[in-house]
Specification:
By secondary structure, the chain is α+β, with helices and mostly antiparallel strands. About 40% of the residues lie in helices and about 15% in strands.
């Protein structure tokens, strides 16, 4: 979430387990994400204001601005699929973004650097569902799992 026009919880005591935007509707986001029944997670609506916190985050994105979004609550750590959860969170925020902001929602180069490809944001912008996005990666995941077998100390 650090490469989109929002805050990833930096500037709070709970970085990376909450996200928000100045235009977000936390109630709607939490309801949508909870309806997706992501394994091991539930989401709560949240409003917060990122602040400078010495030793943690001195200049967080959207500093001193009220943002609205969600907090991740882990209900079963073993069941959580973090990449799939992240795709769903990005998808929900992007679809909630006002049309006037969608073209700049993803900060292109940093987002590509974080994800290693432009494929994810293109798929979201092209209207693909989170399930379609995750399914599109499965051949690459299977190839990686096969390749890594030679390097596992304990198969």
């Amino acid at each position: 979430f650090g490469s989109v026009e929002g805050n990833e919880g930096r500037g709070t005591e709970h970085p990376f387990i909450q996200q928000g935007t100045v235009w977000g509707d936390g109630d709607a986001l939490a309801a949508e994400l909870n309806a997706r029944a992501l394994p091991g997670l539930r989401f709560e609506p949240l409003t917060y204001t990122p602040r400078s916190i010495p030793g943690m985050s001195t200049d967080p994105r959207l500093k001193n601005q009220e943002v609205h979004g969600i907090r991740h609550v882990v209900t079963d750590a073993r069941a959580v699929r973090p990449v799939e959860a992240g795709v769903n969170v990005l998808h929900a925020f992007w679809h909630q973004a006002p049309d006037s902001l969608k073209a700049t929602f993803f900060v292109d180069r940093p987002f590509r650097n974080v994800t290693g490809t432009a494929r994810l944001y293109r798929m979201i912008m092209d209207g693909r569902t989170p399930e379609e996005i995750v399914a599109a990666w499965q051949p690459d995941v299977a190839a990686f799992l096969e390749m890594r077998k030679a390097y596992l100390l304990y198969p």
